[in-house]
Specification:
With 140 residues, the protein is of the alpha/beta class. It contains 5 helices and 5 strands; from the N terminus they run E-H-H-E-H-E-H-E-E-H. The structure holds ligand CA2. Ligand CA2 binds next to loops.
């Protein structure tokens, strides 16, 4: 069974609670339950942190044994050289995902410090971006 982890960064614990017009009205925990049912042939895990160092620690922890990381680093995507370095230091492939289409938004969201180290980037499909991210590791 493939081992895949979804890692969410800062503020994504507020999904479904605030800003539903951008991020929808479903909590991630609820969405994750459904995702696990739909992908019951996959060992799927979920981790969320608001702290850059904790995200890096998790990437190091799983990055030599898991089959894939679906990473929404939130705003750290646009600021964190350190998370980019962590991705390039591990063996496990990483797919960068975003709920919103970052290219339709402010210009500071157009640049990613992570994308160059990732297998690919998926954005703009709402929570379905995560399903597409998981799917990408299964068809690979
Ligand atoms: O679209 C995405 O998934 C983002 O990664 C979300 C980040 C944003 O900084 C990126 O540019 C794009 C922000 C996550 C904030 O999540 C919230 C969820 C509910 C309420 C408020 C914030």
């Amino acid at each position: 069974m493939k081992k895949i982890i979804i890692i969410n960064g800062p503020n994504l614990n507020l999904l479904g609670v605030r800003e539903p017009s951008i991020y929808g009205n479903q909590s991630f925990v609820k969405f994750f339950e459904t995702l696990k049912e739909n992908y019951n042939h996959v060992n799927l895990e979920y981790f969320q942190s608001n702290h850059e160092g904790e995200i890096i620690d998790k990437i190091h922890e799983v990055g030599f044994s898991y089959d894939g990381i679906v990473l929404n680093a939130g705003a750290y995507t646009h600021t964190s050289v350190a998370i980019g370095d962590a991705i390039s230091a591990i063996d496990t492939p990483v797919v960068e995902v975003h709920i919103s289409n970052v290219h339709k938004r402010e210009s500071f969201r157009h640049h990613s410090y992570l994308a160059a180290h990732c297998t690919g980037v998926i954005c703009g499909f709402g929570l379905n971006s995560y399903s597409l991210g998981v799917q990408s590791f299964l068809s690979a």
